[in-house]
Amino acid sequence: MAEVSVAADDEAALPPGAPSTDLLSLHESIAGVLATQGDWRRAYHHLKSAFDLARAGSLRDTLTSSYNRRYLDQWLHGPSVERRGPAGMAIALVDLDLFKEVNDTFGHLVGDRVLREVADLLQQGLPSEGFCARYGGEEFALVLPDVDHAHAVRIADTARIRVAHHPWARIRPGLSVTISVGLAHENRAEVVEPERQLRHADSLLYMAKRAGRNKVAYHDKDSSRTIPRSMNSADSPGA
């Protein structure tokens, strides 16, 4: 039996930017061909690459391509104290305001597109070690390591403004989208369990909702605050 040549060993058979599912299938196919030729070392290499791609895919949300709840849980229950950095760490829970009305008015396909675009907007401007994860439904979590309290508030409010100012009407006339954010910051010296910090962010998120939505709620020293503080507040990135 003639030996089969594997021309796609370096993934050159796929166009740039090919989906990871295609890369996974390619690695599996190459591994099968190499195994039939007795080249077990290279077959193992491609099987390992397929496994790594499958694992990476299992940590991504299929709709928005942001990280999923599984990745968030793994990160928070890992050595997160060491990852906080000297300035501490913030967790922000983000919820799309009145998202059910978006689905009811414009349909679920538009709702899905809104979720994808909000995820993209939330991932902009994060610190190098920060990330966005879909927490569930229309909720997202922002994990912001090594940021002080003031910086965390700026990141959260800039994200709020970015979403509110996004040209949603280009998707459908009359469409507008805002988010509410609950932001919980802990100093490095405050070793807080991840569940407690998440619960804190969740309670602040509900505070932002009760204050009228399209707000960021956070603790400032001994009190809780929201921004903007009134519906007439200046609402621009420089405000």
Automatic annotation (TrEMBL):
GO terms for cellular component: plasma membrane. Residues 87-221 form the GGDEF domain. Pfam families: GGDEF. GO terms for molecular function: diguanylate cyclase activity. InterPro entries: Diguanylate_Cyclase (IPR050469), GGDEF_dom (IPR000160), Nucleotide_cyclase (IPR029787), Rev_trsase/Diguanyl_cyclase (IPR043128). GO terms for biological process: cell adhesion involved in single-species biofilm formation; negative regulation of bacterial-type flagellum-dependent cell motility. CDD domains: GGDEF. Residues 225-239 have a biased composition (Polar residues). Residues 217-239 are annotated as: Disordered. This is Diguanylate cyclase. It comes from Amycolatopsis orientalis. The lineage of its organism: Bacteria, Bacillati, Actinomycetota, Actinomycetes, Pseudonocardiales.
